[in-house]
Each structure stands twice: as C-alpha cells, then as structure tokens.
C-alpha cells in the first residue's frame, strides 16, 4: 500500500503548490495522476505559462530534467521544479537557473 500513500502525499504537495500560485493571483490547475511534463500549470493574468514538476523528495531524475529543459525551449515557457527543502517550505528551482525559496 505504499504506492497509495506515496500518491496521496504527492497529491497533497501538488495541491500546496497549486494554492501557492493561486495566492499570487495565477490561474492554477493540478494535473491529477500526471505522467506528463507538469503536475501543476499556472497562468498569469498576462498569459505567461509556468509548468511545475513537483517532487516532495526533491529527487529529479537527470533524464526528466533534460526533457523539461528541452520542452521549455520548445514551448517558450518557464518550467519550475518544486520540492520541500526544509520543513514547511517549498523551494522552486527555475530550469533556466536559480532557486526561489517560498
């Protein structure tokens, strides 16, 4: 039953990320059961799209990161990696470079 527990923990974290972007006045969607590029999609009032891949553990496989970087160039959008760095804090890493701690 660890798969179920992992799914629930991941869904809770994805919803935290979604709520964060909503609090910043983004239109945000969670892609439930996502096996695609993004777990959360956030769109600003100006139409700027941010695609967010969430991993509570902070472990992002290298091939996954390469795919995300490639897609960010193709779709001309921002990709963020979201994870818990310290208890209760969400850290966003922009694939273009830089870490944003929330």
Give the count of structural domains.
Answer: 1
SS-derived structural category: alpha+beta
Which fold name is given in CATH as the topology?
Answer: Trna Endonuclease, Chain: A, domain 1
Computed CA radius of gyration, to the nearest angstrom: 13 Å
H/E element sequence: HEEEHEEE
Give the overall shape. Answer: globular
Q: Total number of helical segments? A: 2
Roughly how many Å apart are the termini?
32 Å
CATH class: Alpha Beta
Secondary-structure blueprint:
Elements: H1 2-23, E1 27-30, E2 40-43, E3 49-54, H2 62-75, E4 78-84, E5 90-94, E6 99-101
Parallel strand pairs: 3-4
Antiparallel strand pairs: 1-2, 2-3, 4-5, 5-6
Short structural summary:
The chain has 102 residues and is of the alpha+beta class. The protein has helices at 2-23, 62-75, and strands at residues 27-30, 40-43, 49-54, 78-84, 90-94, 99-101. The longest helix is centred in the N-terminal third of the chain and has 22 residues, at 2-23.
Structure description:
The protein is an alpha+beta fold. It has a single domain, classed as Trna Endonuclease, Chain: A, domain 1 (3-Layer(aba) Sandwich). It has helices spanning 2-23, 62-75, and strands spanning 27-30, 40-43, 49-54, 78-84, 90-94, 99-101. A six-stranded mixed sheet has the order 1-2-3-4-5-6, with helices on both faces. The longest helix has 22 residues, at 2-23. The radius of gyration is 13 Å and the shape is globular. It starts with a helix and ends with a strand. The model has no long low-confidence stretch (mean pLDDT 84).
